[in-house]
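Entry 14. Structure prediction run on the chain below.
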Amino acid sequence: MEIAPAGQWFRKTVVDSVVTRFEEPFVHSYFAANIWLVKGRDADLLVDAGMGLRPLKPVLDLTPGKPVLALATHIHLDHVGALCEFEHRLGPRESAAAFATMPDALTYAHEFRHLDDAVSALPAPGWTPADYQLTPAPLTRILTEGDVIDLGDRSFTVLELPGHSPDGIGLIDEKSGLFFGGDAIYDAQLLDDMPNSDRTVYRQTMERLKTLPISIGHGGHGPSFDARRMREIIEAYLRRGAEG
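Output returned:
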């Protein structure tokens, strides 16, 4: 297998003047998560940190001296891989202690190690999936329901959104309706059958999200969505649950 071309491990998409999306196109689609950078006046916010197979921070075009708040919406491997690169590390209360060790039982890193087609191009010469390890990234701020993340010109309120995982959180800017859903909701097949998933709790989360006043939503996977599309995703999930 060839090594990924220089500078192409991450795909960058400028969404608007505030939000930029980064993806890892050479990672198996099951583990290829969205990485969101939100520009703020006083600080920037990174929502999720990918797989950590190549350094993330250098590709973000950050402003020297400006704080970057790196936030994990949950502890699964595809969202925490590069969290260790950042000084300010934020994550959910439910799994807070585990960020210091990144155990396979919570991150599911072992699943990636056993994939024959884990990547379509190598992140480094001689790399194999068996080499994959998450670097511990102890949290510097533990987040819980109602906490506020202030970037100076905008702020986000933390929402606890369990179901996909016990520790899932999301963020909403209540003034603009800008929403980050992590893996609680995104525009692709939602996963609720992992060892730590809870379908009953997930349905409760979906009922809560039904009335969330968003303008645009950015999920952990898939394309962005508006309020109408979010309701469609929710109704489809609830209908699937009702049908067994």
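The chain has five helices and twelve strands.
Filed with the rest of this week's runs.
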